[in-house]
Design brief:
Elements (H helix, E strand, L loop, with lengths): L6 E4 L9 E5 L6 H4 L2 H11 L6 E3 L17 E4 L8 E6 L20 H10 L7 E5 L2 H4 L10 E4 L2 E5 L6 H12 L6 E5 L6 H7 L5 E4 L5 E6 H5 L1 H10 L6 E7 L2 H4 L16 H5 L9 H14 L12 H17 L7 H4 L1
Helix pairs in contact: 11-12
Amino acid sequence: MWTANAATISPSADTHDGKVHFTPANLTNKFHRSLEPVTTGRILQAMFRDPAHFAHHTHLPDNDHFGDEGAANHTRLCSAYGKRGVELFVFGRYAFDSSQPAPKRFPARHTLEACEAVARLHGLNDEHVVYMQQNPDVIDQGVFHNDVIAVGNQNVLFYHQQAFVDTQNKLNELRRKFGNETDLHLIEVKDSDVSVSEAIKTYLFNTQVITLPSGEMAIIAPTECQESHAVSSYLAALVQQHTPIRHVHYYDVKQSMRNGGGPACLRLRVALSEQEKQAVNPNVLMNDALFSTLNQWVDKHYRDQISEADLADPQLLDESRSALDELTQILGLGSVYQFQQD
């Protein structure tokens, strides 16, 4: 499962107890994904072990009323990562109010009730939380997560004109709770510039927006954006405007794109202070040595090809478990998989 769907994470600057809070997503809408949360929770606890700094919660109840898709529907806006921010939770439907708008063609995977439950678990102040509903019409056009139609980073929210319900009122609430409105950049992409279908096809919003050492921001986009005249023209104009986004970098991630992914699949941010960073399991922090070791692990364990018939071969199961057992040792995670505990 994409890391963007693994969990929702609130940094210590936002929480009532000054700890970083983690809630794995239950992913109830898809059976094969709903098998993941227990293991995901164990992995997160093995990475962020110190209870003095980190608080871990069990995933929400396994039913559609609390459907939770994690960080793909969560954006944190702030002046700086270490300062208190506004946590923006986006949902597709109301679980207990059928009179509210909802998509008709595709399921809304994330509910308001799930958003509210995570905010309560994390001890977030209501004055620093905003709940916004996805536009049911764009869900029915294929926008299965908010990160397909909007993306945020620090003081920038980059979104499509059709992304939300009751957009202006909710943006006004966001401005008020953010505080210094002049520092908040709300960048709306008009339908006349880029249609919803073109945004979905190119994953314009399924990009990464990152802050560079200079303080300027860059969009990390798939080459599909570069190959689209409408999208590439829009991005070329955007970096000339008076917003923090000053650069666009294109990368070929076609294998990810063809499997429903894109740059935003890695959008699971854990904002940490220096003290909190020192408390992280050091074995999981990427460096040249770990990068080399992981490449060797892939070369050793990954089959060059796989067929449907292989799925009935017990040897594939044995190989997979052997690979995962070795990986958990490399990363110092302990026995996080069920087969390791049986």
